[in-house]
Amino acid sequence: MSTLSHLDGDTIVAIATAPGRGGVGIVRLSGTAARAIGESLCGAPLTPRHAHFRVFRDSSGQQLDSGIGLYFPGPNSFTGEDVVELQGHGGPVILDLLVKACCAAGARLARPGEFSERAFLNDKLDLAQAEAIADLINSTTEQAALSATRSLQGAFSREIDALVEAVTRLRVYVEAAIDFPEEEIDFLADGKVAEQVEALQTRLQQVLQAARQGSLLQEGMKLVIAGRPNAGKSSLLNALAGQDTAIVTPIEGTTRDVLREHIQIDGMPLHIVDTAGLRESADLVEQEGIRRAWEEMASADRILLVVDGSSPDADIASAALWPEKNQRLGADLPVTVVHNKADLSGRPPAVIQQGGDTIIELSALTGAGMDLLREHLKQCMGYSDAGGDSFSARRRHLAALAEAAACLEAGREQLQLAGAGELLAEDLRRCHNALGSITGVISSDELLGEIFSSFCIGK
Ligand SMILES: Nc1nc2c(c(=O)[nH]1)N(C=O)[C@@H](CNc1ccc(C(=O)N[C@@H](CCC(=O)O)C(=O)O)cc1)CN2
Ligand SMILES: Nc1nc2c(ncn2[C@@H]2O[C@H](COP(=O)(O)OP(=O)(O)OP(=O)(O)O)[C@@H](O)[C@H]2O)c(=O)[nH]1
Ligand SMILES: [Mg+2]
Q1: Which ligand is nearest to the CA of 251?
Q2: CATH 3.30.1360.120 domain residues, the chain
Q3: Rounded distance, CA 29 to CA 26, Å?
Q4: Which residue from 90, 140, 206, 450 lies 20 to 30 Å from 390 (Cα-Cα)?
Q5: Could you say which DSSP state residue 151 is in?
Q6: CATH 1.20.120.430 in the chain, residues?
């Protein structure tokens, strides 16, 4: 049985600060016995919301550390339960000793994310806000962190709540009409319902657009660099990363393994993958590298197909890869062709549209045209670094919003084609559920387990 979505009576304890050494380290307790355990270590009563300087001792009276004891009575605490913090010196051994003493006094070790989970179960946060805590901690760019803070403050949840409210109103209206069949016909015919469904669709698309941006900020763009040996793929990785991560040589087949580098472009996290040059090879190691290259391409947000633009058959070289790509990965993968070595070809840096393809002329060696590439990558993902009001979101949220949008569209069609009020009502109910799964009004133990178990311990 899952223990997740139920609050047990346990008092939990964990180190709340990052592992390793630091000036100060915090041990946090939550639950009904938190106060008693905290007071036993502090050796004196803890006044609510007061900072007490104390010596922390175990049950045998052994001095462990000295520090600040804090007591937040529930429900006005982070978890909504009684919370005690022991703020000691930030060394891993001493903090572990404090945790052990708390366990000896009746606490148990917290599971990953259990503090946040309790905050969620006690209605201190909704699910999207709890996820924003983890996203804030894991943010890799300033923009990502600030957008996570906005979600934690409820910016995303308010958008969802507003959508839920509109769907609820519409459901009440539609279901009332179904209950009075004589009036149902008029009600469906007068176009007001269709109008409201469409207004809701527009609103939902706006939230989806903002959430896409928010999820991009958190998860970033995956860029796979692929192409023939010696085209300059590794040089391009190094140019983007601004450091010599990859080995570059004039020998074909230099890169055999998959190389990864994480950077950002104006706040958009970019996960770059450099791959082995694509060619027929008898070398087992190289074959495996090439197999992995195709595998990485399959999950790319964008593939940079790098071609040596200075070779006379540059276009043929890139064209030759198309049938193979289509065969392996399908026709509509997002590919941008890079004509590298512009310094040799003499062609000026440029972004060229040609028969549905985008071609970028650049030189990984001199850096000419790299700014065009960066702009292009942002554009591909619809990333705008201007927005100071974005909020963070996750793939999970995008999927739920897309599901809600699909339900609305199905409902609109039912109404239009069949004038079917009952089918519309059912689609609205499913739309409502999808939206509810974002803030966790509707959630399963499985989903909660999946979300909170990916948090760090002590969060
Ligand atoms: N020392 C310490 N710093 C911390 C945390 C913590 O748990 N301990 N946090 C942990 O994540 C974050 C702050 N988050 C918190 C959120 C709510 C409450 C809280 O006590 N809320 C009560 C009272 C609010 C009030 O007084 O206005 C409540 O919501 O009822 C505390 C911390 C970051 N800094
Ligand atoms: N002139 C010039 N030479 C370049 C440029 N980019 C790469 N090269 C050279 O081309 C050769 C191959 O570069 P790499 O970056 O190793 O090529 P690669 O595509 O990673 O090759 P493999 O790993 O073997 O598949 C090296 O000698 C680079 O210095 C460029 O923009 N201009
Ligand atoms: Mg290489």
Answers
A1: 2
A2: 11-125
A3: 10
A4: 450
A5: H
A6: 137-216+394-439
Q: How many angstroms does the Cα of residue 250 sit away from the middle of ligand 2?
A: 6
Residue 388, pLDDT score: 67
Q: What is the mean pLDDT of residues 448-459?
A: 87
Tokens of residue 290, six digits: 């090439």
For residue 156, which of 380, 456, 396 has the smallest C-alpha distance? 396
Do residues 418 and 239 make contact, with C-beta atoms less than 8 angstroms apart?
A: no
Cα-to-chain-centroid distance, residue 85: 30
- Ligand nearest to the Cα of 254, by number: 2
Q: In angstroms, what is the span from residue 141 Cα to ligand 1's centroid?
A: 24
Is 233 marked as binding a ligand?
A: yes
Residue nearest atom 2 of ligand 2, based on CA coordinates? 341
Tell me how long the chain is: 459
Q: Which of 208, 220, 254, 158 is nearest to 383 (CA)?
A: 220
Give the whole-angstrom CA distance, residue 134 versus residue 152.
10
459 assigned binding-site residue: yes
Q: Which CATH superfamily is domain 137-216+394-439 in?
A: tRNA modification GTPase MnmE domain 2 (1.20.120.430)
Residues 232-271 pLDDT 10s: 999 999 999 999 999 999 999 999 999 999 999 999 999 9
Mean pLDDT of the chain: 92
Listed in order, the ranges of the chain carrying CATH 3.40.50.300 are 222-381
pLDDT band at residue 358, thresholds of 50, 70 and 90? very high
Structure tokens at 427: 């689609």
Q: Which atom of ligand 1 is nearest to the CA of 87?
A: 1
- Rounded to the nearest angstrom, the distance between the alpha carbon of 88 and the centre of ligand 1 is 18
User: What's the topology of domain 222-381?
Assistant: Rossmann fold (3.40.50)
**Chain centroid to CA 356:** 31
Query: Mapping DSSP to helix (H, G, I), strand (E, B) and coil, where does residue 305 land?
Result: strand
**Residue 224 burial by Cβ neighbours in a 10 Å radius (0-12, 13-18, 19+):** buried
- DSSP annotation of 277 reads P
Q: Per CATH, which fold does 11-125 belong to? A: Gyrase A; domain 2 (3.30.1360)
Extract the tokens encoding 180: 């009075």
> Is 250 marked as binding a ligand?
yes
On whether 91 is known to bind a ligand per the annotation, the reply is no
pLDDT at 181 over 80: no
ipTM, 2 dp: 0.86
Lateral strand order in the sheet of 83-90: 52-57, 63-72, 83-90, 22-30, 12-15, 108-109
Cα–ligand 3 centroid distance for 341 (angstroms): 14
- Mutation to probe ligand 2, out of 236, 238, 248 (largest number of atoms < 8 A from CB): 248
Which atom from ligand 2 is nearest to the alpha carbon of 229? 25
